[in-house]
Write a structure and sequence with these properties.
heterodimer, A: alpha/beta, five-stranded parallel sheet, 5 strands, 46% helix, B: alpha+beta, six-stranded antiparallel sheet, two-stranded antiparallel sheet
Chain lengths: 129, 261
């Protein structure tokens, strides 16, 4: 079975490391890290990804802008997106989902929740292809 | 007459034969029933073991998550000798791992015996005032040397192990103010984490408000408080020493440069 690739776009090294720790439990998965939206976009353009975990508040380019760009680009439109943010308000959630995010997780994150969501979206992608 | 007798005898034989077959069949059924009972017991035991195993797996996963959080927190704190980076890491841990929305980091001015606000998130630094060690919630916790939460944790266990809002040895009612910052300038924190290296106090972290989606402090949060209390303090201490040694090195090199001219 072909290995799947996950991109983590998060400016906090602490948070990135925690997400890597959690996602490493998935089998057959490679994890790539990006430190802001621009870096994320560069890495998304460089290769195929099966899932992107994106923080909202980031320098250079924020997460919502990145999701908007992804959804307007044919080659990136189908990549499932999980938003990870401190913003817990319903309108923030709705805004991200309207932009095309598949899931919305609030901080502080629970590793098992991230794992469940990632597993589900990767499985969905595998079934679709 | 003889025919009738032999016919009855044959019938009797047939009946006996049928009865014996019935008996054998019943024995077989009893045997099968016994075997199935045994199998059922085995399956039940397997099911119980499976359930225990699933429960144990979930426990191990939770423990793994807990250790990962603690490991990431301490590794990040010791990944730099730059004071600004250390402060940034403390901020990240408070937001991302604890779920703090408003908090401040205080540094101890040993000469004046005061805790001075060094960095803040969610509240303007200028609004925070210095606190005296031993006074107010923050000062009392720094004097006491143990992290305390002033609200019952989600699992009913506070950092002091009793879950009661107790400060300075006296039971007190600690209701956070609406904006999370008290009138006394030191604020009315939900939790205070003293920063200490061995017995030497260096400062404190005061958490005034949690993120809206965070229902309360958990057992893991209290463990993170312990990590912050010791590791953040030693990281700050190391960064300060490093800055001092760099300054001294600069001075010595400058002096040697002057001598060499």
């Amino acid at each position: 079975m072909e290995r799947q690739r996950i991109l983590i776009v998060e400016d906090s090294p602490t948070m990135r490391q925690l997400l890597v720790f959690a996602l490493r439990r998935l089998r057959g998965v490679d994890i790539v890290e990006a430190q802001d939206g621009m870096d994320g976009l560069r890495k998304l353009s460089d290769g195929r990804f099966d899932l992107a975990l994106i923080d909202i508040n980031m320098p250079v380019m924020d997460g919502l802008k990145l999701i908007g760009l992804m959804k307007s680009e044919d080659s990136l439109r189908e990549v499932p997106v999980v938003v990870i943010t401190t913003e817990g308000a319903a309108q923030d959630r709705e805004r991200a989902l309207r932009l095309g995010a598949d899931e919305y997780l609030t901080k502080p994150i629970q590793a098992h929740r991230v794992l469940d969501v990632a597993r589900g979206l990767l499985e969905r992608g595998r079934t679709a292809s | 007459m003889s025919d009738e007798r032999s016919s009855r005898a044959a019938q009797g034989e047939e009946f006996l034969e049928a009865f014996r077959r019935g008996l054998d069949f019943t024995r077989e059924l009893l045997h099968e029933n016994e075997r199935l009972r045994g199998r059922l017991a085995e399956l039940e035991a397997e099911r119980r073991a499976g359930r225990d195993c699933a429960g144990r797996c979930a426990e191990i996963e939770q423990e793994n998550d807990r250790l990962a959080s603690l490991c990431v927190a301490s590794a990040q704190l010791h990944s730099t000798l730059d004071l600004d980076e250390v402060i940034r890491t403390i901020t990240e841990i408070a937001i991302n791992l604890i779920g703090a929305d408003r908090f401040a980091i205080y540094a101890l001015d040993e000469r004046r015996g005061e805790l001075l606000p060094l960095a803040a998130e969610g509240v303007p630094l200028a609004r925070l005032q210095a606190c005296r060690v031993g006074e107010g919630r923050i000062g009392e916790v720094v004097a006491g040397g143990r992290a305390r939460s002033f609200e019952p944790s989600r699992d009913g266990v506070g950092a002091d192990g009793c879950g009661e809002p107790v400060a300075g040895g006296r039971a007190r009612s600690f209701e956070p103010s609406r904006d999370g910052v008290g009138a006394d300038g030191c604020g009315e924190p939900l939790a205070v984490i003293p920063l200490r290296v061995e017995d030497r106090p260096l400062g404190a972290i005061a958490i005034f408000r949690l993120l809206a989606q965070k229902p309360g402090l958990s057992a893991l949060d209290h463990e993170l408080f312990e990590v912050l209390a010791s590791h953040a303090a030693s990281a700050i201490f190391a960064a300060r020493l490093h800055a001092q040694s760099e300054r001294k090195l600069g001075t010595i090199q400058g002096f040697l440069g002057l001598l060499g001219r």
